[in-house]
Predict the 3D structure of the following.
Amino acid sequence: MAGNVNFFEGLRYKGGVGMWAWILHRIAGLGVLLFVGVHVITMFFIYAGVGTESANAYFAWYKTPGVQLFVIASLLYHALNGLRIILIDFCPSLAAYQKELFWLAMALWVPMVIVPALFIF
């Protein structure tokens, strides 16, 4: 029977480009959330007049090249992949080309990350 599928077999993802796009989108989203969350909390404590030492530690952490590059890469990937998802949502016929759209987003993402990386490093 085609309809008789094991529950756990149905939950297992089969992999491919879509899986990697999904995983990277979640990682980039969490990176952006972490950065924005820490930034908002730090700004709150600065404007409240307390926590200037921890704010200075945050700014020192943020000024490290690895963190700056991660934040830029996360923001750009999350934005480009989000646009890809919006295109597929509003034009369902593009779902057949989701792999090509992913690689197009990657082709745009790489130079958009390399250029700032040259300035950071």
